[in-house]
Design a protein that fits this description.
Blueprint: E1 10-13, H1 26-38, E2 43-45, H2 54-63, E3 72-77, E4 79-82, E5 101-104, H3 108-122, E6 129-133, H4 137-140, H5 144-164, E7 170-175, H6 178-187, E8 192-196, H7 210-217, E9 220-224, H8 231-234, H9 248-264, H10 268-274, E10 282-288, H11 292-303, H12 308-316
Parallel strand pairs: 1-2, 1-10, 2-3, 3-6, 6-7, 7-8, 8-9, 9-10
Antiparallel strand pairs: 4-5
Domain NADP-dependent oxidoreductase: 9-316
Pfam family, one: Aldo_ket_red
GO molecular function: oxidoreductase activity
């Protein structure tokens, strides 16, 4: 991992500040960030995609009032925003995004354009970490191979130059697929991988590709999506899995986890929150939060005492891979 950036162990994820699934007020957004700051969080992640710039605006509004040396900020490239000018476009999961249209583009020039826009929205002269965002097969479909090559030859080259010139401290990739992350690490010299949902309490495919590659190359993993978009926080009946319906095999796993949690008197969200903190490749775990109360609750989950016997029971039940290092409690 880059010697130029030291990422705090816990981070704040800004997707919800972009009105993911539901709109929140400006006041609530700022109160939530204040609660995160007061709770000791000093790493803040955002992206142009989150609310089509709205998250960056809100994150920047708060961070501009804090001493710049006291926090780390990351954003992403892969999309820049343009006025729609009457053109129809899909707002996707964003309940009330800015009235801007995202343009998917991993080229060199588009990367520079995206970052210029991010600097303007954040109101910050420097950004610590920049990730190439959503370079996944499920997002890009049959165009994946083309976009992947453009990202290697365009976005990565642009970020590598900015890193060498000192304009950013670390660069990486933010993906939902661990094999893509592994392939990208093999082909480039990145510092970090932001991995979403592939090293969680109920699934650990990253153990077979991404995490071993990260350890070999000295790349830090920023683990996100630890609740698999909600199912590990709320249970199978009242949430989503990877932003969609919860499939049957996941429901079965959740029921086993819940039964083991009951035996040990452990809250399932607490186990999910702490799960990845034991792996040596994990540099940081980032949690998305949209209410001051959710910040307090997350910190409470992280403080819950969980005995080794609980993790061992999950391994014996086949929920947690036997290769998983025993999780450790977090220290922000």
């Amino acid at each position: 991992m880059s010697n130029q950036v030291d990422i705090p162990r816990l981070g704040f994820g800004g997707s919800g500040l972009g009105n993911l699934s539901r709109a929140i007020s400006e006041v609530q957004a700022q109160q939530t960030m204040q609660a995160a700051w007061d709770g000791g969080l000093r790493y803040f992640d955002t992206s142009p995609l989150y609310g089509f710039g709205l998250s960056e605006l809100r994150v920047g509004q708060f961070l501009r009032g804090q001493p710049r040396a006291d926090y780390k900020i990351s954003t992403k490239v892969g999309r820049y925003m343009v006025p729609p000018r009457g053109r129809a476009y899909d707002t996707g999961m964003w309940a009330a995004p800015l009235d801007l249209m995202p343009v998917l583009d991993y080229s060199y020039d588009a990367t520079m354009r995206s970052l210029e826009q991010s600097h303007a929205r954040l109101g910050l002269a420097d950004i610590d970490i920049v990730y190439i965002h959503d370079l996944d097969r499920r997002n890009l479909g049959t165009d994946f191979d083309r976009h992947y090559r453009v990202a290697i030859e365009g976005a990565y080259r642009a970020l590598d130059r900015l890193r060498s010139e000192g304009f950013v401290k670390a660069i990486g990739i933010g993906v939902n697929e661990s094999d893509v992350a592994s392939d990208f690490m093999a082909e480039t010299d990145i510092d970090l991988v932001m991995l979403a949902g592939r090293y969680t309490l109920i699934e650990q495919p990253a153990l077979s590709d991404c995490l071993p590659m990260a350890e070999r190359k000295g790349v830090g993993i920023v683990n996100v999506g630890v609740f698999n978009s909600g199912v590990l926080a709320k249970g199978a009946e009242s949430a989503t899995y990877d932003y969609g319906a919860v499939p049957g095999h996941v429901i079965e796993k959740i029921e086993v986890v819940q039964s083991i949690c009951e035996v040990f008197a452990i809250r399932m969200p607490a186990a999910a929150a702490q799960f990845s903190l034991g792996h040596p490749a994990i540099a940081s775990v980032v949690f998305g939060m949209t209410r001051p109360g959710s910040v307090e609750q997350t910190l409470d989950y992280l403080a819950e005492d969980i005995p080794d016997a609980f993790w061992q029971a999950l391994m014996e039940a086949g929920i947690v891979d036997v290769r998983v290092p025993m999780p450790k409690r977090s220290n922000a």
